[in-house]
Design brief:
Rossmann fold, 12 strands, alpha/beta, 386 residues, elongated, disordered N terminus, six-stranded parallel sheet
Length: 386
């Protein structure tokens, strides 16, 4: 039994004995974000609250767009922000920094120091796949992000601040320096969703943010190849929000390639709509160039929809039970889709195996295990500050 498995079993043993945590303070200036790390917390908090824990969101700055300059300004404000406005921190059992970004981490560290409270820092989406095509997000942004995170992790490790890193296994095979003693956060879909025979509404669906690094343009190019090379006229739906100027670019691209009859841009959809769409689509096409975990892929797997995606280390939890394509290989993707459509029963069998791979994941389980981690963090902090 390896160390992580042993630790997990120890956590499970104490799963029903968490009585010492009453109040959690969360520093979270990007509360309105739709990123994976933020979605993760939005799903955990209600479970903690149902168990009787009071969760307070500390948002010193609200409604600021996430840009380099805005983060720099917020960082300066976090350094000089008066602590007196956070008197309620005195009653918290632990302080969590939702992200590794300076506005969250610096404020959380200052609050921890002033009010003598234990702290844990969550780091989402530090993955080698961002190095495959750094220009998708912007080379400067990627370089700055990796440099900053490397320094931050070194400092947090030096001062023994507990770190949660989602999907650290994706780093082990790559060149980014990995520091020891991480606790992993397995993210998850709704595993209780039952597989039903689809009332097929679309051949292909994509659910996620409409952004450049998510490969939305690749989906459109794949549709063009299917049309012209294979005489396949797929019904495609792209669901998710994006910045207005980029969405406008996507609409123009669809019109220019004469694919308006094939591709529907749906925009935001609710949770129920999302699962209905996943059930009623033949294939979930996800051509993102970088992922830390991908909740969307796991949600598709949870309903037994075949997945076609670029080959990223983040999808290790599927154990190969998806149709992988080399990153950026649009022609290969079109050919893979043709094969899936031609032998759909075999594709569904692979999708069933993918669903079995994620049966172990549940937000309820994760929420409880993290409470055990918090309890241990609180105890360690108390022991070290006697």
């Amino acid at each position: 039994m390896n160390k992580k498995t042993q630790t997990l079993k120890e956590y499970q043993l104490f799963n029903d004995t968490i009585t010492s945590i009453n109040n959690i303070g969360i520093v979270w200036y990007k509360y309105n974000s739709e990123g994976g790390g933020d979605i993760h917390f939005k799903r955990l908090i209600p479970i903690w609250e149902l168990s009787g824990i009071n969760v307070s969101i500390l948002r010193p700055i609200i409604g600021v767009e996430f840009t380099f300059l805005s983060v720099l300004k917020l960082t300066i404000k976090s350094i000089f922000l008066k602590m007196d406005k956070f008197q309620d921190v005195k009653k918290y059992d632990i302080i969590l920094s939702v992200s590794p970004y300076p506005p969250d981490v610096l404020l959380a560290l200052r609050l921890s120091h002033k009010y003598k409270k234990p702290i844990a820092v969550y780091i989402h989406h530090i993955t080698p796949s961002i190095l495959i095509n750094p220009f998708r997000r912007g080379f400067f942004r990627v370089l700055l992000n990796i440099s900053y995170i490397s320094v931050l992790i070194s400092l947090l490790s030096l001062f023994k601040v507990p770190i949660f890193l989602d999907n650290p296994s994706t780093l082990n095979k790559h060149s980014i320096k990995v520091f020891p003693d991480f606790d992993a956060i397995p993210q998850t879909a709704n595993k209780d969703i039952l597989i039903q025979e689809p009332c097929i509404g679309y051949d292909i669906c994509y659910i996620g943010r409409v952004e450049n690094h998510k490969g939305v343009e690749d989906i459109i190019k794949v549709a063009e190849i299917l049309n012209k090379k294979y005489s396949i006229s797929p019904r495609i739906i792209i669901a998710g929000k994006g910045k207005e100027n980029y969405v406008s670019k996507i609409k123009k691209m669809i019109a220019k390639l004469d694919l308006s009859d094939n591709i529907t841009l749906k925009g935001y959809i609710s949770e129920n709509e999302k699962y209905d769409l996943l059930r009623n689509s033949k294939v979930f096409l996800f051509l993102s160039y970088e992922e830390g975990w991908s909740i969307s892929v796991m949600e598709a797997a949870s309903v037994g929809t075949p997945i076609v995606a670029y080959s990223l280390p983040a999808y290790y939890y599927l154990k190969g039970n998806y149709f992988s394509v080399p990153i950026g290989d649009i022609n290969g993707c079109a050919e893979k889709l043709r094969q899936v459509f031609n032998d759909y029963s075999s594709a569904k069998n692979i999708a069933i195996k993918a669903k079995e791979c994620i049966e172990i994941f549940s937000y309820d389980f994760i929420a409880k295990q993290q409470l055990v981690f918090f309890k241990k963090t609180i105890k360690d902090y108390a022991d070290n500050n006697l």
